[in-house]
Amino acid sequence: MDAQLLGYISKHPGVGGGELADAEQMSAPSMSAHLKRLEAAGWIGREPPRADDRRRVGLRVTAAGEAALLAIRRQRNEWLAARLAALTAKERRALAAAGGPLRRLAGDRW
């Protein structure tokens, strides 16, 4: 979940907690708990309120958060590469053929 949230905030700097909860199909209280945890870890920060809406506080990924996201992605990629290497050539071709439909299913989340 950390990588997913950090990745979204990194792609959408200034996103608000409510918008992020909607994008991740999560309740506002659950999202708030995740954001508090990420902020306590030093991985995200809050931007000053906007002049047009003082209640809205945007989120940004900190340098520590970018480093954590990179480490999470590297670990995930190494895990996946090891599993792909264990597949037969026929199995890898089947996965490659499924790529297009999977991207359409995932829509903007990919």
Verbal overview:
It is a single chain. 65% of the residues lie in helices and 5% in strands. By secondary structure, the protein is mainly α. The protein has a two-stranded antiparallel ribbon with strand order 1-2. The radius of gyration is 17 Å and the shape is elongated. The protein starts with a helix and ends with a helix.
Note the topology.
Elements: H1 2-11, H2 17-23, H3 28-40, E1 44-46, E2 59-61, H4 63-85, H5 89-106
Antiparallel strand pairs: 1-2
| Beta content | 5-15%
Cα distance, first to last residue?
Answer: 15 Å
- Helix percentage: 55-70%
Low-confidence stretches: none
Order of helices and strands: HHHEEHH
Oligomer: single chain
A few lines on this structure:
Helices cover 65% and strands 5% of the residues. The chain has helices at 2-11, 17-23, 28-40, 63-85, 89-106, and strands spanning 44-46, 59-61.
Give me some keywords for this one.
110 residues; mainly alpha; two-stranded antiparallel ribbon; 5 helices
